[in-house]
Design brief:
Layout (H helix, E strand, L loop, with lengths): L7 H14 L2 H4 L10 E7 L4 H14 L3 E7 L2 H10 L4 E4 L11 E15 L6 E2 L1 H8 L17 E5 L4 H10 L10 E3 L2 H10 L3 E6 H9 L4 E6 L6 H5 L6 E8 L5 H10 L5 H6 L3 E2 L3
Parallel strand pairs: 1-2, 1-3, 5-9, 6-7, 6-8
Antiparallel strand pairs: 3-10, 4-8, 4-9, 4-10, 4-11
Length: about 280
């Protein structure tokens, strides 16, 4: 192409502008790769914590510029911190309630809530009425349920935990109706109490209770409304006290937050879900 003397200054100016528009990456033949940077704070459910901690470490290994702080503080407090803006993602061991519909929930796996007793307790199961009366103190002796003549010791978790909120909703009970004899802070603590006390009963994650029983801890899971408490009955949708394990955000996820949630929903972490006894949604 021939450029005459009159057009040459304009051509030089256009060429200079085009050079300025080329990024450093383009100038180097696209040889530079940008590292994604960021930090996330994930707080909430103690039941979900071990799984999400492992998911976070695996995610970090794939994204060296991202750091994820996972904290076990209970589902209720997780929601509080999420709303306050001190957490980026909340962890719930239940579904969102009606008064939480302004939040965004992402179920990543399924679990259940088990009625757990000492291994030597002859009781095999309870129905919803019996469980309601046991929790509220209308049933106080195992003999009333066909067991031994022994008082019932209820190990009950503090408020703000997903298991407490779930059972209150399912049985249509209030917190002030509960009659605990021993207050525990985690499902693991409740399982330890029951393993040492033949009179005790607690509510715990099916996944956690199954892992404990398989490890030789002296407990057993009672059937509920005729259905065995197990990962298998949760998978088959036969267990009435099943629940989703849910990640929660205040707004539609974006950036690193979205990357992390997408990863937690992916098939890349199904092996971790199975490791902790949860039932994957991708079955």
């Amino acid at each position: 192409m021939t450029i005459n003397a009159r057009s040459r200054p304009v051509f030089i100016l256009v060429l200079a502008l085009l050079c300025l528009m080329i990024s450093p990456v383009q100038a180097q033949g696209f040889s530079t790769v940008k590292t994604v940077q960021g930090k996330l704070v994930v707080t909430g459910s103690a039941t979900l914590f071990p799984l999400m901690n492992d998911v976070a470490r695996r995610f970090e290994s794939k994204h060296p510029g991202i750091k994820i702080d996972v904290r076990s503080i209970g589902s209720g407090r997780g929601i509080v911190e999420l709303r306050a803006g001190t957490a980026d993602v909340g962890m719930l061991s239940r579904a969102l309630f009606n008064n939480e519909r302004d939040l965004f929930g992402f179920p990543i796996a399924r679990d259940g809530l088990a009625v757990v007793v000492h291994r030597d307790n002859p009781i095999k199961g309870v129905n919803s009425r019996e469980l309601s009366e046991l929790l509220t103190g209308r049933i106080v002796n195992w003999k009333q349920l066909g067991g031994r003549d022994l008082p019932i010791n209820l190990a009950w978790r503090t408020q703000g935990h997903g298991s407490v909120e779930l059972i209150l909703e399912r049985l249509n009970l209030r917190r002030d109706q509960m009659r605990p004899h021993i207050v525990v802070n985690t499902g693991e603590e409740g399982i330890r109490v029951v393993a040492k006390d033949p009179k005790a009963v607690t509510l715990a994650s099916v996944a956690e209770a199954e892992r404990s029983a398989q490890a030789g801890i002296g407990i057993k899971l009672l059937a509920y409304n005729g259905s065995i408490a197990s990962s298998r009955t949760i998978q088959n949708h036969n267990y009435m006290l099943s629940r989703p394990m849910t990640l929660v955000t205040r707004h539609l996820p974006q950036g690193v937050q979205k990357q992390f949630i997408d990863y937690a929903l992916s098939s890349d972490v199904v092996d971790l879900q199975v490791k902790y006894g949860f039932v994957p949604y991708q079955e």
